Amino acid sequence: MAAVSQLQRQFVDYTTSLYNEEYLDDQFTQLQKLQDESNPDFVVEVVSLFFEDSEKLLNNLATALQQTSVDYKQVDSHVHQFKGSSSSIGAKRVTNVCVHFRNFCEEKNLDGCLRCLQQVKHEYILVRTKLEALFRLEQQILQAGGSVPVME
Amino acid sequence: MAAKENKGSYVISRSSNTRMASFIKRIFVKIHSAVNSWERNHSLCRRKSLHRDVEQEELQHANTNCLSSYYSVFVARLAIMVMLAILIGLLTLLTWHFTKVYTRTSLNALAYGLRYELLQRPVLRMWSVLNSTVEITTAQVKISEYVMRKYDKPENQAQQVELYEVMRDVTWALFASHRALNSITIKYKNGFVQAFHRDPRDNSTYYIYNDLTNYTMAGPYDVNSSSSHQGWNDQTIRSNISAIWYREPLDPDTGEKIGKQKAIAPDELINIAGISQVPYGAASWHVAVSKFTNSPLLSAAMPVRDASQESIVAVVGVTTSLYSVGQLMKELVGFHSGHIYLTSQEGWLLATSSTTPLLTNTSTGPKLMMAVDSQDPVIQTGAKWLLKAYGNKPPPSHEVHIEHAKLGNQLYYIDSFFLNLKRLPMVGVLIIPRKYIMGKVDERAFKTLMILISASVCILVIGCVCIFVLTNGVSKEMKLRAELISHLDARRKAEASSNFKSQFLANMSHELRTPMAAVIGLLDILISDECLTDEQHETISQIRRCSTALLRLLNNILDISKVESGKLVLEEADFDMGRELEGLVDMLSVQCKNHNVETIIDLSDDMPKVVQGDSARVVQIFANLISNSIKFTTSGYIILRGWCEDPHSFVENGNFSLTRKALWPGPKNKLIQQKSQEKSSCKKDNRVILWFEVDDTGCGIDPSKWESVFESFEQADPSTTRLHGGTGLGLCIVRTLVNKMGGEIRVVKKNGPGTLMQLYLLLGTSEDIPLENYKLKYADHNLKVVLALNGSMCRINLSKWLSKIGVHTWDACEWNELTHILQELFIPPSRYTQNLTYECSKVESISKQEMEASVFIIVVDIGMLNLSTDIWKEQLNFLDIFYRSAKFAWVLNHDTSNTIKIELHNRGHMLVVNEPLYKTKMIHIIEAAIKERSISLRHGILGGDTHELLEIDNVHSDPESSNDSEKSELNSSSTGIVQVELTRRTLSSSNYGIVNNCFLEPTEVSSGRNKSGPNEPFPVAVNGGSSQEKRMTSNGQKSLEGVRILLAEDTPILQRVATIMLEKMGATVVVVGDGVQAVEALQNPMESGTTTQTKMQDPPQYDLILMDCQMPKMDGYEATKAIRRAEMGTRLHIPIVALTAHAMSSDEAKCLEVGMDAYLTKPIDCKLMVSTILSLTKLQPNSLIISSIK
User: Fold this and answer.
1) pLDDT tens figures, B294-313
2) d(CA B868, nearest CA chain A) in Å
3) Disruptive mutation site among B1057, B1071, B1106 for chain A (greatest number of A CBs within 10 Å)
4) Which helix or strand (DSSP H or E) is residue B209 part of?
5) What is Dmax (Cα atoms) for chain A?
6) Which residues of A touch B1056 (CB under 8 A)?
7) Chain centre to alpha carbon of residue B504
8) Chain B partners of A103 at a C-beta cutoff of 8 Å?
9) Quick one: pLDDT at residue B236?
10) Could you say which DSSP state residue B956 is in?
11) Which residues get modified to Phosphohistidine (chain A) (predicted)?
12) Quick count: other Cβ atoms within 10 Å of Cβ B570?
C-alpha cells in the first residue's frame, strides 16, 4: 500500500507540475471529470485521438509550408484546427503557440510560420511525452491496485 | 532629381562642351560633399543641443530626408546659376563682338577711301608738277626754236647778242609766268648759258650767265656723234673754270635789273642742264638737289634743235622745286594727322609731310636720302617696316595696304601707291596712326565691353540671388514635403499601432475571456459542490464575485474600444422598458442594502410599456448610472425616475418643476425638427422622448467636473479611485450610448446633497399600446392600503401614486404607528369610521358589510419587526388578529433569515415580495389580493390560496420574463455583452428565486447553503445561478434528459469531448463530421416529411444543433444558411448553437447573421453550454423543475 500511496503522491505531484508549467489547463481536468464507469478510458481515448490528429496536422503543415507558393489560408485553417483540438484537450502551450502561428499566417510571414511550426512540433512532442508519462503512472497505480487520485 | 535631369539635358545640349560640363559636374560633387559634411556636422551639433532625448531613429530618418532634399536643391541651384552665367557671358560677348565688327568693317571701308584719297592728292600734285615742268620745258624749247630759227646763222656778234637778248626776254617771260619754277637754264651749243633762278631762301630772283669770252662759235652739235656729246657734259661746264659766271639780281616782278652783276664762284652755280641730260634727244627729267633749296628739285631737260631738226643747238633745263608737294602733304597731314612721303622707286625720299630735311649734307654737297634714313622717326620706322615686310621686292603693283603695322608703341595704317612714270616711277606711302581712325571706335568698343561686362555681372548677381530666393522656396517646399512624408509615416505608424491595439484587444478578448469563463465556470461547479464548509463557500463566493467584477471590467474596456472604433451597432427590438429597469433595480438594490440606501424606481404611468431599442444597452446605461450612485452613496436614497414626454401631447408631470425642464431646451426642439423632417417619410414612426433621472444623496460632483466626468478614465476626484476603485469608463460608455440613442445626459443642479443625472433617450414605440388605467381598474374594488415601510422615500412615492389612482392609503414608518393605524382601522370600527370620513370626505360611515366589501391590503416591511430579539413572533401574533380582515403582503429583505420566512409561511402569509417595492410589485400585490378576494367570495372560505398564488406568480414570472428574455436573446443581433446577458439571465432567474422561495419545500430552501452573505454585491445573480446549478445537481446531472442534439464537428477530439459532456447530461447525441452531413442528417427526415403535409408538423429529429464554424467541405455558416433555407416556409426552427474558437464579437455577429441562435466558444464550458441549450430547447427550465418536483 505504501507503494501505491507513493505512486499516488507522485502522480499528484506530476500532474500539479504539469498544470503549473502550463502544459495542461482546466480543460484537461474537465476531460478527466468526464471519465466515469461508462467511459473508463475516455481521457486516454481522447488524448490518443489528439495525438493522431496532431501528427496528421503537423505533417500537413510541414508539406504546406514547403510549397513554393504557400497557401496561407490552408495553413491557417490547419493551425486553427490544431488550436481547436489542442485547446479541447487542454494542451495549453500548444494552443498558445498556435495563436502566434495564426498571427504569422495573417501576416504571411513565412519565416515566422516555419519557426512556429518548429515550436508547435516541439511543444507537441513535449506534451505528448508528458501525457504519456502521466498515463504510464496512471497504469502503474491501477496495476498496483490503487485508484487514480482525482485532481481538483 | 529634376535638377539632375535638367543638368543632364544641359550637358547633352552642350555636347561641344562636354568636357567642361564634366568638369563642372566634378566641382558640383566636391562642393556637395563639402556641404554635406557641413550639414551633417551642423545637424549633429543641433541634435546634441536640442534633441538629446528625442528618439534617435526618428531624427536620423528626418536628417537623411533633409540631407537628400538639401543635396538636390543645392545641385539644382548651382546648375541654374552656372547656366545663367554662361548664357549671360555669351550674350555679352556676342553683343560686343557684333557691334565692334560691324562698325569696324564700315569704318575700315571708309578709312580705306580716306587713305586712298589722302595719298592720291600729293601724288596727283606731283604729277601735275611734273606735267607743268614738262609743259614749260616744251614751251621754252618751242620758243627757243622759233627765236633761233629767226636768228639762224648769226653773222656777227651783234646778231648773236641780239639773239641772246631776245632769248633772255622770252625766257624771262616764261620764267615770270610760272612762279613755281626754280630755274630755267638755256645752254647754247657754244657753251653760253643763260639762266633765271629763284632763290627760295631770300625770295630773290637772279639772272645768271657766263661771259662770252670763252665761247666759241662751234658748229652745231652732232647729235649722233659721241665726241660732241662729250663736250656737253657737266664736267666740261664745271671744269670750264676759265669761264666767268655772273649773277644779276632782278626784280622778281618786272625782271628789271636791280643790282650789279657780280661774278660768282662756280660752286654757287645752279644746275645747268647740259647735253648729257638729253642723250637721246628727247625730253628727260630727274630729281636733283641744289644747295639753295632743302628740298629735292625736279629738273627736266630738252634739246632745242635747229630748223632742219638735225642738230641740237641748245639745251633747255627747267627745275621745279618739289617743295609744294611737301607743302601739300603738310597741309593734308596737318588736317588729318599721320605722315606721307614720296619716294622714288629706288627709295630716295622726294617729299615728306614732316619738316625734317630731305637731303643729307655730304662732303660732295647735298644728296638725296633714303626713306629709311629719314630723321622723322615715324617715316623711318615705317620705311623700315615696309622694307622688312617686303624687302627689296615690292609687290608688283606696289600697292600695299596694311592695317596693323606696329611702329614703336603705336599701331598704324600703312598704305602705298605706285605712280608709274616712265622716267621717274614714284611710290607714295601714307602712314596714319590707327588711333586717328579707329581710336574712337576702339574706345567705344572698350567702353561698350566694360558696360556690357558690368551689366552682365549685375544681371548674374541678381539672377543668382533670384535663383537662390526662388529655390529657397522650392527647398522649403521640399522640406515641408519631407516633413509631410515623415508625418504621414508617423500617422501610418500610429494607425498601425492603433490597429495593433485593436488587434491586441481582439486577441486579448479571447485570451482573457476564456480563462475568465473557465474561472467562473469552475467556481460555479465548486459552489454547487455539496461538501464544502461554510467558510470555504464564503471564500469561493467571494472569488466568484471578484471574477465577475473582473469580467465586467474587461467587458467595459472592450466596450469602450468597440465604441471608439465605431463598431457599436444598436439593435432595434421591442422590449418592456419598465420590466427591464425594475429587474435592474431589483438586482442593484441588494447592493444598496449594504449601505442603508433605499433604491426606488419611480416610472410614471404614461411611459409606453413597449419601446423599441437596444434593451441591453439601455439596461447597461442604467446599470452603470445606478451602480455609480450606489458606489458614492452611503446613506439616503437612490431614485430612478422616468417619465415620458410626448412631443405632441405635452403632459405636465407633477414630479418635476418647470425650471428643470427649462434647463433642457434642446431635445424637444430637436425632436420636433426631426419630426418635421421625417414627417413626410414616415409618419407612423412615432418616437418618444423618455426622460430619466438618477437622483442620489451621495457625495455629489463638483460643478466644474460636470462635463468631464463623462470623459474616458475620468473620475470626479482622483481619490475616488483609491476609495471606490473603478476605471472611470462607466460614465463614458453611458454617454456614448445615450448619444447613440439620440439622447443627452448631463449632471443637473440639485437642491441638497448628492448628484442628479438627467438624461433623455429617443426611442421608438412600435404601436400604441393603451395604457392601463389603474384608476378605472381598481375603482370598484374599494382598495385600502396600509403601507408600513421603513424607507420613507419609497413609502411617500407609493402612497402618492396609490392615492393618485384612487386608493386610500395609510402610512406607517414604524411598528407603533402601524399598530396604531391597525387598531384605529379595525378594532374600534366607530373610530375608524370617523377617521375614514375624515379621510374620504363624502363617504358614509363604513358598516360591517362595507368593511367586507372593501379590500384591505397591509404591506409590511419585514424590517418593521424587531428581529434582533424574539419579539417579532409576538408582533406576528399581534398581526394575526387582522389576518382575516386584511390581506397581508410582506416585503422581505434579501437577507431575511429562513426561520422568519418559514414562520411566515406557516402562518399563512403567502404574499411575499423582495425589496425594493415598486409599482409593478404593488400592482401584483393588489391583483393577488383582489383575486383572492373574489375567490374567497366565490367559495366563502379562504383556502388553497397557495395554489392560486402559485398560479399568479407563474403568470408573473414564467411566460413573461423567461420568454421575454429568451426572445430578446434570440433577437440580439447586436454584439452581445456577456455581462448584460448574464444580468438578464440572472434577472429572470432571480424571479424564479422569488417564486422558489414561495413554493419550494422548506427543507430544500433551508438545505441550500447558497444564502448569500451580507456583503455580497451580486447575491441575486449567484443565487439564481446556483439555484439553477442546484437543480441540475439535484436532478442527478441529467438536466438535458431527452434532448436530442446533432453535433457537427470535424475535430475528433472535440467530437468525443462534447459527446461525452452531453451524454453525461443525459442528452442523445448524433455526431456528424462536416456541414454537408449535418444538412443531410436534417434533411432526411424533412424530405420524408415533405411528402405529406401533416408530417411537417411532426417535431424534427433533433432538438438542437451544435455547429462548429470551421469545418471541411461546408463550414458552419454555410450549413446554417442551408438549414435555414430548407426551413423556410415551414414553421420549424431548429436551434443552432455555434461552436467556434474565435471569441470576437464580430464572429458572434456573423454567427447570428447566418441564422444561428447562440454562440459558444471553444474550449466548451460545460455549464455555459448546458444553460444555453436549456434556454434554447423547448423544454423550459421551470417545467423541468416542476417535473422534477413531482
Assistant:
1) 677 778 888 887 767 667 77
2) 41
3) B1057
4) strand B204-210
5) 61
6) 42, 45-46, 49
7) 31
8) 507
9) 44
10) I
11) 80
12) 15
Highest-pLDDT range among B102-116, B268-282, B872-886, B1020-1034: B102-116
| Torsional class of A151: left (φ above 0), alpha (ψ -120 to 50), beta (otherwise) | beta
CA distances from B459 to B88, B99, B446 (A): 8, 20, 20
How distant, in Å, are the alpha carbons of A111, B4, B11, B24, B73 from that of B30?
Answer: 44, 15, 18, 10, 15
Q: Give the list of residues 6+ apart from residue B356 with CB closer than 8 angstroms, or none.
A: B374, B375, B376, B379
Model confidence pLDDT, tens digit, residues B446-487:
888 888 889 889 988 988 888 888 877 777 888 888 899 999
Q: Which residue has the cell 660732295?
A: B364
CB B558 within 8 A of CB B505: yes
- Write out the residues of chain A at the interface with chain B, using a CB-CB cutoff of 8 A: 25-27, 30-31, 34, 36, 39, 42, 45-46, 49-50, 52-53, 77, 80-81, 83-85, 87-90, 99, 103
Q: Would you state the pLDDT for residue B486?
A: 92
Query: Cα dist. B830→B824, B825, B848 in Å?
Result: 9, 9, 10
Contacts of B915 (CB under 8 A, 6+ apart): B589, B593, B861, B891, B892, B893, B894
Compute the Cα dihedral for B962, B1170, B1048, B1041 and give only its sign: negative
Q: Tell me what pLDDT residue B10 has.
A: 41
C-alpha cell at B566: 465605431
Interface test with A, best of B511, B1056, B1140, B1165 (most A CBs within 10 A): B1056
Q: Do B1164 and A84 touch (CB under 8 A)?
A: no
Whether the Cβ atoms of residue B199 and residue B206 lie closer than 8 Å to each other: yes
Least confident of B346-355, B802-811, B934-943, B1040-1049: B934-943
B247 phi and psi, to 5 degrees?
Answer: -140, 125
- CA of B1051 to nearest chain A CA: how many angstroms apart? 6
**For residue B614, what pLDDT is reported?**
83
- Hey, what's the cell of B430? 601714307
End-to-end alpha-carbon separation of chain B, Å?
92
CB spacing of A39 vs B1060 below 8 angstroms:
yes
Query: What's the half-sphere exposure (Cβ side, CA atoms, 13 Å) at A116?
Result: 26
Cell 434570440 found at: B970
Give strand ranges (E) for B663-770: 686-696, 744-748, 756-765
Residue B404 backbone dihedrals phi, psi, to 5 degrees: -130, 60
Nearest to B379 by CA among B417, B409, B344, B351: B351
- Express each pLDDT in B521-555 by its tens digit: 888 888 877 777 888 888 888 888 888 888 877 77
Taking an 8 Å cut-off on Cβ atoms, the answer to whether B1163 and A31 are in contact is no
Beta bridge partner(s), residue B856? B784
What string of DSSP letters covers B509-531?
HHHHHHHHHHHHHHHHHHHH-SS
Q: How far apart are CA B506 and CA B1144, in angstroms?
A: 6
| Cα–Cα distance measured from residue B362 to residue B353, given in angstroms and rounded to the nearest whole number | 23
- Give the CA angle between residues A99, B1159, B1180 to the nearest 5°: 150
Distance in Å, alpha carbon of B1102 to nearest chain A alpha carbon: 23
Kindly determine whether residue B1053 and residue A80, on different chains, have CB atoms separated by under 8 Å: no
Residues 6+ apart with CB under 8 A from B436: B336, B337, B338
DSSP assigned state of B715: -
HSE on the CB side for B638, CA within 13 Å?
31
pTM, entire model? 0.38
- Give ipTM to 2 decimals: 0.74
Residue A138 has pLDDT above 90, yes or no: no
* Chain A contact present for B1052, CB below 8 A: yes
Residue of B1029, B1111, B1039 whose CA lies nearest to B1078 = B1111
